[in-house]
Amino acid sequence: MMKKTMMFVAVLAVCLCVLHSAPLAAEKQLARGDALPAIKLPVPQTPSAKSYLGLTGEGSFAISQIKAQVVIIEIFNMYCSNCQREAPKVNELYRAVDKDPNLKGKIKIIGIGAGNTPLEAEVFRKNYQVPFPLFPDEDYAIHKAIGEVRTPFFICAKRNADGSLNVFHTNKGGFQAPAQFLKQIVTLSGL
C-alpha cells in the first residue's frame, strides 16, 4: 500500500508540474509598457523580509509599495521541476544585486507561488534556501490577473514618478546566466 501511495504522489507531482509548465490557450501575457496589475500580498511576518521590502505594519500591501526602483517578480510553483532547477540561479541573481552598491536597494526580488499554499511557499523557500520573500497564491487569483503564465515566469517592473509600476520586461522560463540577466534588467530599466 505504501508503494502505491508513493507512486500516486509522484505521478501527481509530475502532472502538476506539466500543468504549470504547459502554455495555456487563454494565456494573455503582460507586455512591455503595461501597468502592473494591482496585486495585494500579505505583509511578511519576519522583520528581515519587511525590512528588505521597506514595509511596516500588518495586513496586506500593494507591490507598488515595495521600496525599490525596479521589482522583479518570479512566478513559480513548488512542484514545477523547472522552477526547482531555476532556484539556484534566482538566488545568485539576488546575491549579485545585494553585492552591488549601485543596485542594492534599487532592485528587489519577490516570488509568488501560483497555486501554492503558505506552507508550500515556505517549504520551497527552505528547500532551495531562497533569500527573498515568497508569497502564496493559493487560489490562483494573482496568476489569473497576470495572464495565467506558465512557470517559471519573470515580470520586471519599473517605478513611475507617480509611484505606480509598469512592466518593462518579461521572461518566460528560466534565464541562462544570472549576470547576463541582471545586465539586461539594468539596461532595459535605465538604472
Could you say what the CATH topology is called? Glutaredoxin
Number of helices: 6
Cα Rg? 16 Å
Fourth-level CATH superfamily:
Glutaredoxin
Return residue spans where pLDDT drops below 50 for at least 5 consecutive residues. 4-27
Lateral arrangement of strands in the main beta sheet: 5-4-3-6-7
Please tell me the CATH architecture by its name.
Answer: 3-Layer(aba) Sandwich
Topology at a glance:
Blueprint: H1 2-21, E1 40-42, H2 47-53, E2 60-62, E3 70-76, H3 81-99, E4 107-114, H4 118-127, E5 134-137, H5 141-145, E6 153-159, E7 165-172, H6 178-189
Parallel strand pairs: 3-4, 4-5
Antiparallel strand pairs: 1-2, 3-6, 6-7
Would you write up a description of this structure?
The chain has 191 residues and is of the alpha/beta class. It has a single domain (26-189), classed as Glutaredoxin (3-Layer(aba) Sandwich), CATH 3.40.30. It is 38% helix and 21% strand. The chain contains 6 helices and 7 strands; from the N terminus they run αβαββαβαβαββα. Strands 5-4-3-6-7 form a 5-stranded mixed sheet. A two-stranded antiparallel ribbon has the order 1-2.
Produce a short descriptive summary.
This protein is an alpha/beta fold and 191 residues long. Helices cover 38% and strands 21% of the residues. Strand 6 and strand 7 form a beta hairpin.
Spell out the key features of this protein.
alpha/beta, 6 helices, single chain, 21% strand, 191 residues, five-stranded mixed beta sheet, 7 strands, Glutaredoxin, two-stranded antiparallel ribbon
